[in-house]
Every structure is written in C-alpha cells, then in structure tokens.
C-alpha cells in the first residue's frame, strides 16, 4: 500500500500496510500508535465527514489480520468500539473477541508520570483491553 494513501479499512492499518511492518521492524510502540492508530482515526474521520456514517463504518466491518503485537491489535479493536459508541452505531462483532487484550498492558505515553492519569482517563473501550491513554490522545485538530 502507498504510505501516502488513506487507510480504507482497519486491515490496511493493521497488517497490510503500517502496523505489521513497524512491529516486524521493532519500531517503538508510540510510533506505531501515531502512524497506524491515529492515522486510522484521521482517515475514519475524513470518511465520516465526506462520505457519511455508512462508508466510515464499513472501514471496520471485517476483522483485521494480526499486526504481530497484541497491544496494537487491542488498540485497534478499542478504537473500533470507541468510534462506534461515539457515533451511535453498533460496534463490529470482531471487537468483542476477548483475545484482543493488551498483554502486557500498554500505556501509550512513555511518560511514567502520566500513567496514573491514563488509568483514570482512558475510555472504557481502551481500559477494558489494557490500553491506557490520556484524555487528549484521540483529540484531533
């Protein structure tokens, strides 16, 4: 996949394009968060704004292939559930798989002083999967 093209599905972000390649290259998890998870959020938001809820929801219809890191897979499932709840639609069934849990827990910020804050501020869809983010982690300009 062309790295300058938008993700059309969660699988584009997980296995086919960015995350799996970065996991294999042993990239920092914070970089994978930025280049896969946040880019997917941006592309979803663009699809929602320009093509509507049906097109944006279709990005999450099929379960993505594993990225090679359970924490990344858990974050993608958490994002899928979070966006579904936020936008008033049904979450795709695949996000309910109990295997989509971060082992070990993943605090997206590397700043240990923010970990207690992330424990409290993480949306439920992230917290229950062991992925902890601060309240601003999903806010986009």
Topology overview:
Elements: H1 10-16, H2 19-24, H3 29-51, H4 53-58, H5 70-86, E1 106-107, H6 115-121, H7 124-127, E2 131-132
Parallel strand pairs: 1-2
Helix pairs in contact: 3-5
Query: What is the strand tally?
Result: 2
Query: Whole-number radius of gyration?
Result: 14 Å
Number of helices: 7
Report the biggest beta sheet as strand number plus sense, adding barrel if it closes: 2 strands, parallel
Order of helices and strands: HHHHHEHHE
User: Portion of residues in helices?
Assistant: 40-55%
Task: List the defining traits of the structure above.
single chain, 141 residues, mainly alpha, two-stranded parallel sheet, 7 helices, 50% helix, globular
Provide an overview of this structure.
The model has no long low-confidence stretch (mean pLDDT 90). The longest helix is centred in the first third of the chain and has 23 residues, at 29-51. The protein is mostly helical. The chain is globular and about 40 Å long. The protein has seven helices and two strands. The chain has a two-stranded parallel ribbon.
What would you say about this model in short?
With 141 residues, this protein is mostly helical. The chain is 50% helix and 3% strand.
